[in-house]
Design a protein that fits this description.
The complex is a heterotrimer of chains A (about 300), B (about 375) and C (about 375). With about 300 residues, chain A is mostly helical. Helices cover about 70% and strands about 0% of the residues of chain A. Chain A is globular and about 70 Å long. The chains are: A mainly alpha (about 300), B alpha/beta (about 375), C alpha+beta (about 375).
């Protein structure tokens, strides 16, 4: 009797016949034809070179070498990485209290408040970046405020056309992408776990380190991958809010290669390290369950 | 009637017109389906369709320097030819080239190419030959603009030269009280944090004018001279507030008092003065670089006839008058120039066109352009 | 966190009470969850808070643990005012209803959590974790994850996690609810033994009256935010003071009758059917008016089966048998009385093949007046 029961269990695995593949065939196919193949065609240019107006298709690693050796590319890459890291860490610090408050402390009108978080995303990113331009300028709102309240006596021009300005703008525009996944995971965190930690002698800080942080890691990583990648690839904010010496980020340089210098091979070669870093991050995030768990 | 024409015809209808036609039996169900599909498609894809040559009305697409599609001259043209001018602004000639090459010349019918660009476009086989006989105003042009070397290849004409001007130095007299006379002012520490310069490798030529000895042709530089200009640029870096991309930006920067001095074009001065801003122009003593712009037509243009009409319009009396008024640029039509009074001609640097023109180091095609790009990026981006 | 050393074996009269609640109230906005509770729990005692959902028992428990703070009143543990001390400062540990095991930690780390929080060195920690798991009879699972264990095992881990800290007070919030019947009964006995072995005061919350009767030293029956009756299980069961308590625990017969007057230590009254019965008053004997007499069905016998001479002074009521329900251990006989009342008899099925009375029969039932209580309200 037990043997028969066991056999029954084996014969009926979860999922339909053939697994999920038939359902996924169409979207996978679309992805392949309209995304993966064009991307591959683009990236293969990294191994070619440009000769005046034509692409010379002889295999070469010169462009890839150039990315790591020829100024200004290495410097710009590092600058972009540092900026992306700074923005990500800052957004974690800002988003955590907000997501916590939304998930744990808000009792009424939660949907409305969540809408307010998402609301800025309804407007064009360009519009928001432009708004920061107005705010950060030498005669902009921020400087007016600081001078009126007496915090400064002269306008600070370093807010605009600078890395500071870019940093502020990035932190703001990407914030919803950090708040939402963090909110989702904190919302799912059972309150009883927090009470149990308190019951066993953990004060607020210890409970945060030992219970909240480890359990919210998937959400943190999901948000971080978003914010990091978005900053790595962006060229609009550097062009609007940056633009002074030493503010160029890799996204802008890549855009220049394709749009201005007409050097597709170099542009493709510049994309490769960015792609490698982002994929690396995704793998780490996946390892920690940020991209969804296997359902059994 | 081809399928595409039928669709175009359908899309030109108003919804109630179409319904009427259907009710009266002159439209089949298939037509109606096509009509609604077309509306849906065009509202979603309108711009894209226009780009790929499936136009609604007669569309003229162009990639141009800011200001060259101003309503002053585009509106009358649109009305006279029942067409629509659809312009995209580019910040540099490089952008224009990339845009033209990227789509194989099918996205844009025309480009306002400065003197450094047409050669590259020609080599990439993107230009359509122009028959001067089709241009009614052609013979009114100064001879030097009729078949200049930058748009003439293998003795055939590939552009219509319609405007020219210098890249001069602009400054805010409220912030800089003594008028500067040299490009050195753009490297002066006294102006730290108040300088804006055009983000374009071609600008190396402008800074090359500061070299001692001054090169004969700032567009033909030896490697050593290039290195020297690089040093100048690196010297300038900490003083620069912003490397600008579009002319409109310069106007904004001056109006917001973010900068006090920049390189730019006469039309920028026009813009600022129109907003009652404080601005003045200087032609520095070392000389200036400049540009001579021509309308070039894409080999794969959707509307080559309409493009020719536009080029003709722009070298005609109304077009040329518009350019002077809106852009404050110098023009190429002799007949029009000779109708102007002396003061006006002097203001627009056209007292003696041949001489005034020759004084400007016009942008040239640079064979080793990669090197210039490399130097510029290294100096400004790192 | 102050850890009081508890002595196995229980209390002495001289020790201060383990827990004291004085006039504790708790309101959430308009809603009053706990409407004034006074309670004293002795050292090592097993006290159960028993009541239906929403009666305030869990809220009361949480106020002892520090997860809620009283709106007014005082909570004292080991004689010390708790005030608004947070849970991590109280000498209390809790076993939560859904165990609340940390999913990202192994069983061993779960159990060791409290020890880590108070800085117990590693070697000691490992030893004490092993001891705690042995105590709850779950050895060798330190390296497993909570998700790999069954419900019963998880519950024991939760117990071990609480007990390893040697708390003076252990709070248990309906911990057996998710277990199946057999396991639940086994755990009830285990908990009782643990209470004796460990010597900590157990405060237990449940809505299951059988559970309460099984494990507790004393039961506090709660309803609508108040304690209605507090006492040992027999007292609660045999001498319910109110209709609610009588009704909530076990089954009770309620007989309305008019007071005739005191009769020795009893009160005599007349039923709707004109018969006179006597009962023990729970509090003061009422002088007149209508009262309710409560008597447990198992205390009622068929007159024919009442013990001979002993039952001479027993109350007798006559009515018509309307239902006979066989329930395995006993048979339930429902006798309709004149007026609107009825009386239920639980007749133990001691012997197979006993003749059952048939419905429609006229029956007389009898019960000892000493097992009948006049309810206080």
């Amino acid at each position: 009797m037990a043997a028969i029961a066991a056999k029954d269990e084996q014969a009926a695995p979860s999922g339909r016949k053939g697994g999920p593949l038939p359902l996924l065939a169409l979207p996978l196919g679309w992805m392949l034809v309209f995304y993966l193949i064009p991307l591959a065609l683009l990236l293969v240019h990294a191994f070619w070179s440009v000769d005046y107006l034509t692409i010379d298709r002889t295999f070469t690693l010169e462009n890839i070498k150039a990315v790591f050796t020829v100024a200004p590319y290495p410097a710009v890459l590092i600058r972009t990485l540092l900026m992306a890291a700074a923005v990500t860490l800052t957004d974690i610090a800002i988003a955590f209290p907000i997501s916590w408050w939304l998930a744990k402390k808000v009792t009424s009108h939660r949907e409305l408040l969540l809408m307010l978080v998402v609301f800025p995303l309804w407007s064009s990113y360009l519009v928001r970046a432009f708004a920061w331009k107005t705010i950060l300028g030498t005669n902009g709102i921020l400087n007016s405020f600081l001078q009126t309240t007496g915090i400064t006596s002269e306008p600070i021009s370093a807010f605009l056309y600078s890395k500071t300005g870019m940093y502020i703008t990035f932190c703001h525009v990407w914030l919803p992408f950090m708040i939402l996944p963090l909110y989702t995971i904190l919302d799912r965190l059972p309150d009883t776990l927090l009470e149990a930690s308190g019951d066993l002698g953990g004060n607020g800080w210890k409970t945060f380190l030992r219970v909240i942080l480890p359990l919210s890691l998937p959400g943190l990583l999901a948000g971080s991958v978003s914010v990091f990648s978005l900053t790595m690839g962006d060229y609009i904010t550097p062009s609007l809010i940056g633009g002074s010496p030493g503010t160029e980020l890799i996204g802008g340089i890549v855009a220049d290669q394709f749009g201005v210098a007409n050097n597709w091979p170099l542009g493709a070669a510049l994309i490769l390290p960015i792609l490698a870093i982002v994929i690396g991050l995704l793998l780490v995030a996946n390892r920690f369950g940020a991209l969804g768990r296997d359902e059994r | 009637m081809s399928n595409r024409d039928r669709t175009a015809e359908l899309m030109a209808l108003e919804p109630d017109e179409a319904t009427q036609l259907y009710r009266s039996g002159r439209f089949t169900r298939r037509d109606m389906a096509k009509f609604f599909a077309a509306i849906g498609l065009t509202s979603a894809l309108g711009p894209t369709l226009a780009r790929s040559g499936v136009s609604a009305a007669d569309d003229l697409t162009m990639i141009i320097w800011e200001g060259y599609s101003d309503e002053k001259y585009s509106l009358p043209f649109e009305e006279a030819n029942d067409a629509k001018v659809d312009a995209t602004f580019a910040g540099t000639g490089d952008e224009m080239f990339a845009a033209m090459q990227g789509s194989g010349g099918s996205t844009y019918d025309m480009v306002s190419a400065s003197s450094d660009l047409p050669r590259r476009l020609y080599d990439a086989d993107l230009l359509m030959e122009i028959d001067p006989a089709k241009l009614t105003n052609y013979n009114d042009l100064y001879p030097q603009f009729q078949k200049p070397p930058y748009i003439t290849f293998e003795d055939k004409l590939y552009g219509v030269n319609f405007a020219w001007g210098p890249t001069i130095m602009l400054y805010d007299p409220e912030q800089i009280t003594t008028a500067p006379t040299s490009w050195k002012a753009m490297l002066d520490e006294a102006n730290t944090g108040k300088i804006a310069t055009w983000n374009y490798p071609l600008q190396i030529a402008q800074y090359a004018l500061l070299l001692d000895p001054k090169p004969e042709n700032p567009f033909e530089l030896t490697d050593e001279q290039l290195a020297q200009v690089k040093d100048l640029l690196i010297q300038q870096r900490p003083l620069v507030r912003k490397y600008w991309d579009l002319g409109g930006e310069v106007a904004e920067l001056f109006m917001a008092k973010e900068i006090a001095i920049a390189d730019g074009w006469p039309y920028i001065t026009q813009q600022i003065m129109a907003e009652s801003g404080s601005i003045a122009e200087v032609s520095p003593e070392e000389g200036v670089t400049g540009w001579s712009d021509s309308w070039c037509i894409s080999k794969n243009a959707a509307n080559p006839e309409l493009a020719l009409k536009w080029a003709d319009w722009m070298i005609g009396p109304e077009g040329q008058a518009g350019i002077m008024e809106v852009m404050n640029y110098s023009i190429t039509n002799k007949k029009v120039i000779e109708t102007l009074d002396e003061a006006r001609r002097a203001a627009l640097r056209m007292t003696n066109v041949e001489e005034d023109y020759a004084r400007i180091h016009m942008w040239q095609f640079i064979p080793a352009y990669d090197k210039w790009v490399q130097v510029w990026q290294e100096a400004t981006a790192s | 966190m102050a850890v009081a050393k508890t002595q196995p074996g229980g209390r002495t009269a001289a020790d201060p009470p383990s827990i004291e609640l004085r006039r504790v109230r708790k309101s959430f906005g308009d809603f009053t969850a706990v409407a004034g509770v006074d309670l004293t729990v002795g050292q090592g005692e097993f006290l159960t808070l028993l009541g239906p959902s929403g009666c305030g028992k869990t809220t009361t428990l949480r106020m002892i643990g520090g997860f809620e703070l009283p709106s007014s009143g005082e909570v004292l543990i080991e004689g010390a005012q708790m005030g608004n001390l947070p849970p991590y400062r109280r000498p209390v540990n809790t076993v939560f209803q859904n165990y609340a095991l940390f999913p990202h930690l192994s069983v061993g780390k779960n159990v060791a959590y409290g020890l880590e929080m108070s800085g117990v060195p590693r070697g000691d920690r490992e030893r004490r974790v092993r001891e705690a798991l042995d105590l709850v009879r779950l050895p060798n699972v330190e390296n497993r994850r909570p998700s790999e264990l069954s419900g019963g095992q998880q519950q024991r881990v939760a117990l071990a996690r609480a007990l390893v800290n040697h708390p003076s007070v252990l709070l248990l919030d309906e911990p057996l609810g998710a277990l199946d019947l057999k396991l639940r009964k086994a755990m009830q006995l285990e908990l009782k033994h643990l209470n004796r072995e460990v010597g900590a005061t157990f405060v237990y919350v449940t809505h299951d009256q059988e559970e309460a009767l099984t494990m507790s030293d004393r039961i506090a029956v709660m309803n609508e935010g108040r304690i209605l009756q507090l006492g040992a299980p027999e007292e609660i069961y045999e001498r319910p003071r109110s209709r609610f308590v009588a009704d909530f625990i076990g089954q009770t017969n309620f007989i309305e009758c008019d007071v005739l007057g005191p009769d020795g230590r009893f009160v005599a009254c007349r039923t709707a059917g004109g018969e006179t019965i006597r009962a023990i008053p729970a509090v003061e004997a009422p002088a007149g008016g209508t009262i309710t007499v409560a008597v447990r069905p198992e205390k009622v016998s068929l007159d024919a089966e009442a013990p001979g001479g002993l039952s001479a002074n027993w109350n007798r009521l006559t009515g018509t048998l309307t239902e006979v329900i066989y329930l395995g251990t006993h048979t339930q006989l429902v006798v309709a009385l004149p007026g609107e009342g009825q009386i239920v008899v639980h007749r133990q099925n001691r012997m197979l093949g006993e003749t059952e009375p048939s419905t429609g029969q006229q029956l007389t039932v009898a019960f000892d007046p000493a097992s009948a209580t006049v309810l206080a309200e």
